[in-house]
Amino acid sequence: xxxxxxxxxxxxxxxxxxxxxxxxxxxxxxxxxxxxxxxxxxxxxxxxxxxxxxxxxxxxxxxxxxxxxxxxxxxxxxxxxxxxxxxxxxxxxxxxxxxxxxxxxxxxxxxxxxxxxxxxxxxxxxxxxxxxxxxxxxxxxxxxxxxxxxxxxxxxxxxxxxxxxxxxxxxxxxxxxxxxxxxxxxxxxxxxxxxxxxxxxxxxxxxxxxxxxxxxxxxxxxxxxxxxxxxxxxxxxxxxxxxxxxxxxxxxxxxxxxxxxxxxxxxxxxxxxxxxxxxxxxxxxxxxxxxxxxxxxxxxxxxxxxxxxxxxxxxxxxxxxxxxxxxxxxxxxxxxxxxxxxxxxx
Length: 346
Ligand code: SF4
Known about the structure:
disordered C terminus, four-stranded mixed beta sheet, seven-stranded mixed beta sheet, disordered N terminus
């Protein structure tokens, strides 16, 4: 008989940590659907609208219809949001997706409390048009509520062409509220996009969606974000995105350079080691002690984006919706402004 080593024999059984709040709700959530890679669960929503804690951002409120994001972008900073549910494995953020139980009346009550001049950003920590939306339609149901509430002010950030499904709804909303769409396109190189954003729609599909939105008269632009040093920061790569955006009728191209939280570094560095081992050392030298790059590099990227915008005749993040203002006046008589897009991860 094998003797049990005393150290282990004497050790008390590990205690299961007591889960509270959102972590408890995640643990108790019912399985909606499981498929090969991704598991969908339904989760109770205490509220749908959250106050944005960062006063530097140009919106006060955020809405994320899902928790977790199936697109699995290697640089995604939102992975930490799963940690609130004690789901710390980096993969679970992209493979265990929670759909929020939707109560239209409760959502409407929350919306009524938002002052009209305060902007709501939809899709700051998950993509509101990720594959789960095809089935659960929570984003769509939220838009249906917004379509009956004039005088709202919000934007949607996505990487998905599924948004064209909701064009008719968005048109109705644009008749009485300020709505704009921010499509994230980091590269026109489908191969690079497949590596860095493995399960997101191809870049040309996203650009096609911008074109459809613009044809329908919806304010829409492109977020070239994040710029990944040494991967998509060449003059050629930036020009390809800005040119495609311009040809699609995008009203702006906005950019931001990669910032890497610890939770993102844990996924992004091993990814670089696998796919781009020749540059991982340079990334670590820059990002190991700080989440943000500072200094001349930022200026050089900005200069490249500015040159591309000049070449293609397109504006930056802060643009006046001259077209929209002349095409139709807001029923509320409010200024027609498309706000800068500081957060543009999805
Ligand atoms: S689409 Fe956005 S939220 Fe989703 S994984 Fe990519 S970066 Fe994260």
